[in-house]
Amino acid sequence: MSARSGLLGRWSRREKLAVLVIALTVAFLTGTTLVLSAAGNQTTAIATEYTANGTATYYESPQEARERAATQQRAIVVPVANITQPDGSQTLAVGLPNQRSGAFQQTTGIPLGTPPATGVASGTVHNQTVQQLQGRDATVTVSVTPRTEQSSVFPSQWYVANTSTVSSLGPTGAFVISATHSPSQAAGPQQGVPFQSVLLFFVQGAQSLVTLLTITSIGGGILTGVTVFSVTRMSVRDRLPTIRILRSTGASPRAVLRIFVVRAGTMTGVGLCLGYAFGVILTNTAVNVAVFAGLPTSLNVRVTAAVARQLAIVYSCIGGLSVLSGVLAALPAVRRPPAQLQQTVARTQVGESGSLLGDSSLLQLRLLDWRALAPSMATLAVFATVVILVGSLAGMLAPLLMGTGSTLTEPGAVHPVASSLPAQSADTLRENGIAASPETLVFSMHDGQPVVVRGANYSAFAAVSDAELTQGHPPRQPAQAVIGADLAKTLGLSIGDQVTLGGSTDPGITRVQIVGIYSAPGAVDDQLIVSLPVAQHLSTKRPGSVQFIRTKKPVDDLAMKGPAIGVLGITAPEQVASNTSLPVGIRVQNFGPKPATRTLQVRLGNRTVTETVRLNASEQQTVTVDVPASVRGNQTLRVASHMQPVRVRSPQALQLRGVPSEAPPQSTPRVQVQTIQGTPVENATVRVGTDTVTSGPNGTVQLPLGAAGRTQIQVEYQNRSLTKSIRVTPNSQRQLTARLQLSPPQPSIVTRPTATLVVRNPWNQTLSRTIQLTASGQSRTRTVTVAPGNQTTVTFQLSRQSPGSHMLRATAAGQELATANYTVTGSDRLVAAAASSGQQTGSTGIGRAVSTAFGNLNILFGVLIVLAGLMTIGSAAATFAQAIHARQRTLGVYRATGAPPRRLLRLVLGDAFKIASVAVVGATVLAFLATRLLAMTGYLTIYGIRIVPTLSALTLAGLTIGGFAVMLVSAFLVTSMFIRTSPVNLLQSSSGQSQHHGEQGETESMPGDIGD
Fold first, then answer.
1. Do 775 and 820 contact (CB within 8 A), yes or no?
2. Which of 680, 697, 728 is the last residue of a domain?
3. Are residues 464 and 354 in the same domain?
4. Domain that holds residue 900
5. Which residues have C-beta within 8 Å of that of residue 174, sequence separation ≥ 6?
6. Which residues pair with 422 in a beta bridge?
7. What is the mean pLDDT of residues 80-92?
């Protein structure tokens, strides 16, 4: 074999170790890429159904808004006026261009609403009235009509008017509302907000994970470079005689350097291939073990095209740094003349054992030298950076993921965002002396940055979150908000600023004013706290409902002072026939740690019915009570603190079934005249404006609607009459009507119930609609086509559900068609076990949402820590291999003079401990400064949460124990490999006799005594 071939192709055990180190480093980076990408993809996949079809940008000047809108396609300008209401409260009035807003709604599906022809519309009034509104320029007396649209992007507290009305009040700003050309694009609007923000929230959060991955890749590249540098120096040292031969026979320094570049590149390439395989296998194994162990996870770890592109960038960085390190290690040897190479090795191999602080210092080394400190500190600094980042992230999320209190959610909900609870449920806890905060989470955007918005009453939120108001005052109106100190820094907001917020899972938009800044532990400091009405508008929650309820302390640890069973809500028909029974559904839950019994009093007028319920700990149930309805008239249904108006009417009283809330002009919707007991009424006289029609044999009749406006409908039959009204507007969309039933009505936990949806077309034209049925977070769709006046039946086979109350919701084109509640029953043991899923001690809403989206975060953190530890052990082993390699002649002498291997191992480990004592401290300082710098530059903000590096006692303990363990394990592995070699081979290897044809070795300093 030629000298050139031997220099290139012969690999020692140290170089094979280097390949292993590179492989472990690459495995760490590969596993990190896979886990972070899977986490980002999982949340993005969950949110893909909520695409943003439009955006809204607020401008202080209406003129500027018109200029910006002129540069965009399909953009409309909505002027805004600040309004002072008769009671002195502040709100907004928006002016909609009638025709353009209707066309925009048809194009994008975003409901802007319809302004009245005159006056204003408001969602806070139920009957037409007259109010005096004070604007910037004038005080105007206007007619206020109820807003009849089922949904609108504007809050119900805002007035909706035409543009001329807002102009007379005095516009103070304007929205530019534009359609989104690519709803799924990753980059959100840099100004303004999307109407549906949840998708862009998670996409932007995933991009911040990629930034964190890039930082990690740089650290991995440093470790790989240190390893390749160390091993290449050892290779150069071993092959100095061969290099001298090549140089003496005419090889140029560049040619010799090229050989070592190829050698370093080959080692790196093999390490990359092995590391890729290790990373994929280890990551999938970790997820599979987690699933086998019962840990909740939905991570789908696989190499996609996007992951492959990220890995290509990471591998290129590692390969480039490795080759550069090989060049730097070989350059001093290849640049010297051949005659000076032996002198170089003699100078560079001399041991530098000793002390950093003098001969009498405790840091005096016996065998190793302090040249191992710098590379050891570099490898430990990367490990410390990973530990600090993970520890800081866990510390930031601790108040969210592992709080000290409890979170109450709806049983069976896949995550808190899909949960729904009555906000009044918190009253039961407060009656028992338990601080409780009903809350709703909204994932929003602000100028292209993710923002976690929490709807809550601030005083209740502060009581369970250890939040303290540092500036300003608590919110006093629904449109006021307080912001966490860290989020205020991230977004550059302060007291007095107005913030535009978009909807989360439903289209919406609102504006809030920041009136206070609070400070709280961890990620709670990175949130915007708005009122519950604002959060309900931006989410799918209806007034009076929230996603979850948080408590300060675990409910199980508190003595219930009042009744442990609380009433969550009641449901009953709005009207009932006299001398019949009113079915009342009562939703109850046991908030206590033990089984409990409570006697409920159900009152309707002057009649009272009692019902005794018994629930296991944390169990939730819906009980039905029949209350006699004998006295006609308007009555009030009362159960605990819940009330509902009920009208008791004659059994022969009339009702109109299937009347839409609004309809297009000149349409003829088909309705049915019935008694309130459901009996069709034939030959009833129906007057619609000036037109009169008569109901047919089955009670059906077509209503001849005319021009736009509010139309009165009068129904007469014998001595009975009925009056209703319908709003006629050109922006109305024809919708189907539906009736939803479940069979069986109360399924067991082993039954798959069937939902039957009877869809009816009341219009005079055929309608095709896609029906979506949502049940316990799962959705199913069917497309139906219904001829005029006909109906069709659609059935859905539902999944088995856990015991407790569940809700069915049928929608079409974003409009709700029908809802139904049902209760899954089971044995007492099964019901109690499943009901406890609605209460999670030591966790809060966002924690369970993250747990569902990412799987258990312990998996993610565990994979990163384990891979980082393996990577650091390998890199530290390469460092010690170089240090011990330089002292192998000394080891050979001591072995030849009778020193046992165990004594040499003890000496090396003692030196490694001393080096580690300095390296761990230095690495911790370097890592902390590096992460602090990254945080200051904004690179450590993930999902809108600013990660502030901290050195807690637990983190410091982990760094210290982990750092010493890494150093000692590395030294043990390398020393064990050397001391198993015979003394003769150690001496021959050091002098070069076995590999370099009798070349004389280098000189080494010898310690005087190896000790016992």
1. no
2. 728
3. no
4. 3-43+201-395+854-991
5. 58, 59, 61, 62, 65, 66, 77, 78, 79, 80
6. 545
7. 89
